[in-house]
Hints:
This protein has six helices and 24 strands. It is α+β, with helices and mostly antiparallel strands.
Amino acid sequence: MVNSGKFFAMVVENWPVKVLSLALSIFLLIYHRMSLLETRVLNIPLAVEQLNAMMPSNSYPSSVKVSLKGESQDLNAILEGDIEAYVNLREFKTPGAYDVAVQLRKKGTAQGVEPLQISVEPMEIKFILDHKISKFVPVTVNFTGQIETGYNMNSYTIEPNQVVVEGPATILGNLSELYTDYIDLSARRSNFTVDAPIVRNDPLIAIRGDGYVNFSASISQIISVRNISNVPIVITGLDEQFTGVLEIAAANIRIEGYDRAAVDSFVPPREFLKVDCSQISESGDYVLNVYVGAVAGLNFRVDPRETKIQVTEAGEEESE
């Protein structure tokens, strides 16, 4: 029987080597076990947690790569939403550039899974922080396409015509207006209303509200206009026993119509402008309306609209 003294001496003999050997054995066992584990890689959205008046003013990754290493059945059971990646910006109070560690949070199906190794790439993200401000910014409409030929957009309104935006002071300081997405005018020939989204070119700014404007346009057909001067006024209906002399024997015509070609090509026929003397039964001075002929699709205005006529007995001037 080995006495206790000799046994203890045997145990402690070359103890550093024995401890090292034991540690190496444990390491190899763990390494072997971990080498048998599988890896699952996830792209996890990156959340930015901030509760103060600072916010990022530079672009940063919207997601990070998270690697999970563990037993196959355990990895497959973990839902992507149960691994959260985030950076905590609460501690930063002044503007500047900071390297912030990406942190991970397990919940739900990811809790209690062993063995489970979790790593994230990148481990740190550089943030340039600035003061968070808000201001009113006007909204400008973007158009594309052409209204139907022969029509015109008389006016339009947008509601709201300005919105409140939030973002870093350095970015909002240079922001003077926002634009809508393109509103298509192609072949429009009547009034219309659409809801148009406001374009947010910089993801670091936020628009209060639903991010839309209500656009309303008033569209009407274009009226072509042409003026013709010195169109003769013809005396009609005067009894043969009388002779008439017009004080104004010619007038100006304003032509209006939707058909441009018809307006441009119109030539007044004879007796297009006339005065009707059929009711005159004796000599004298009369003021009569100037009548205008009719042409389909065209409207006419005459100036002057009336003229004076001096009516005398036929041959009266010769006898004198």
